[in-house]
Every structure is written in structure tokens, then in C-alpha cells.
Design brief:
By secondary structure, this protein is mainly beta. The protein contains no helices and eleven strands. It is globular and about 40 Å long.
């Protein structure tokens, strides 16, 4: 059974940076399609970023574009989220997700229902 494990969350001041990592446990698991979502208390889970397909196409939510960077290391079955210029509104539990599905348009990768595998989440708290 494939399990995703996130790490790298923590407490940081506004304007600071954090780097999240997520690794799949099964060595036989292989996918090009990874994403990060986040969920703040009292809010729905929302899309943050995705990196998909063999070419590494990236998709970002508008409010993190130019601040966050998603990347992956296929040989390590790992995806990263570099978060810079953090804001208090970035405070949330961050979840990584993976899918074996292929979709013709990158738009579909924003949909959490397209992901088969999820991590347990890592908390990111940004203080003012």
C-alpha cells in the first residue's frame, strides 16, 4: 500500500520561507503527477500547486504564484514545495497528493477528486 509522508512544516514569521517535502513509501510506486493542497480551519481544502506529466508541467493557484515553487525528484519518489514570502493567510495544514491518472488539460489537476493518494498533512503556521 502506498503511503505519502509530508515533512517540513512549522512556525515561521511573515516574509519567511519553508520547504515542504513529500515522499511515497512504496519503491514500486511511480507517477509524474503530484500536487499540494491546503486546508485552513473552517475552510475547504484548496489547491495550491501541481507538477504533472513527464515534462513537469506546473500549475499554481493565483495567490501563491510567484511565491511558491513545486518540484519533484522522480528517482526519490518525492515532491517539494518551496514557499517564500509567506503570509499569515498561508497558515494551513498542507497535504501532498498523487495520482496515476492522465488528464488532457492541466486544469483537471486542480481538482482534489482526481488524486488517488494523500498524505496526512503537515502544519504551516505563519505569524505576523
Amino acid at each position: 500500500q502506498v503511503q505519502l509522508a509530508e515533512s517540513g512544516g512549522g512556525l515561521v514569521q511573515a516574509g519567511g520561507s519553508l520547504r515542504l517535502s513529500c515522499t511515497a513509501s512504496a519503491r514500486t510506486f511511480s507517477t509524474n503527477n503530484w500536487a499540494w493542497f491546503r486546508q485552513a480551519p473552517g475552510k475547504e481544502r484548496e489547491f495550491v500547486a501541481a507538477i504533472v506529466r513527464s515534462g513537469g508541467d506546473t500549475v499554481y493557484a493565483d495567490d501563491v504564484k510567484d511565491r511558491f515553487t513545486i518540484s519533484r525528484a522522480n528517482a526519490k519518489n518525492t515532491v517539494y514545495l518551496q514557499m517564500n514570502s509567506l503570509k499569515t493567510e498561508d497558515t494551513a495544514a498542507y497535504y501532498c497528493a498523487a495520482t496515476l491518472g492522465y488528464y488532457s488539460a492541466t486544469y483537471y489537476y486542480r481538482d482534489p477528486n482526481k488524486y488517488n493518494y494523500w498524505g496526512q498533512g503537515t502544519q504551516v503556521t505563519v505569524s505576523s
